[in-house]
Amino acid sequence: MADEGDVITDLNMNPAPNGEDTQPVAGIISQYIKDLSVENPNAPASYQWTDQPQIDLQFNIGATPVSDQIHEVELKVNVTAKAEQGNAYLIELSYCGLVGMRNLPDEQMHAFMYAEAPRILFPFARRIIADATRDAGYQPLMLDPIDFNGLYIQQLQRKAEEQAAGEITPAGNA
């Protein structure tokens, strides 16, 4: 009865020979602001503007290898608040994370770098944007959550469609 449900015996650990670590693993090692620019070009006049500014939000994701098992994933966010009188504020943020991955197939590494890592980094970038707009004298800009996994799948589908369309040869002469 003592062995029944025993945690130690139920672990079923089969270590690799010589203690080699062969399990797939991926995670964020560290995260940091690489570049942050906040422009408030029409202050203090912009504080008196009464029309609602139009927010233009652009973001991009990039990944750069640092070593065999470490990549820098960069989430770039550009926000411009435009009113009739001019730009209220412009914020450019490059927020990065060092991502460690080993023993993963290439397609899983790619998915982690371009879907999962940005999902993990985004709440921190969102807070920085909110703080920057507040510190510039405006209402904090609270960005809506972004479905990075959905966007990643859309990009893969679009790329597959483009490749399929490029492989089709025209039949006949025009």
Regarding quaternary structure, what we see is single chain
Please state the average pLDDT score: 88
Q: What's the alpha carbon Rg, rounded to whole Å?
A: 24 Å
- Look at the helices and sheets and give the structural class: alpha+beta
Spatial arrangement of strands, main beta sheet: 1-4-3-2
Q: What does this molecule look like?
A:
This protein has 174 residues and is of the alpha+beta class. The protein has helices spanning 7-10, 106-135, 148-167, and strands spanning 25-39, 54-65, 70-83, 86-102. Helix 2 (106-135) packs across helix 3. The longest helix is centred in the last third of the chain and has 30 residues, at 106-135. The model has no long low-confidence stretch (mean pLDDT 88).
List keywords for this structure.
174 residues; 33% strand; alpha+beta; elongated
List the topology elements.
Elements: H1 7-10, E1 25-39, E2 54-65, E3 70-83, E4 86-102, H2 106-135, H3 148-167
Antiparallel strand pairs: 1-4, 2-3, 3-4
Helix pairs in contact: 2-3
Please sum up the structure shown.
The protein contains three helices and four strands, in the order H-E-E-E-E-H-H. With 174 residues, it is α+β, with helices and mostly antiparallel strands. Strand 2 and strand 3 (70-83) form a beta hairpin.
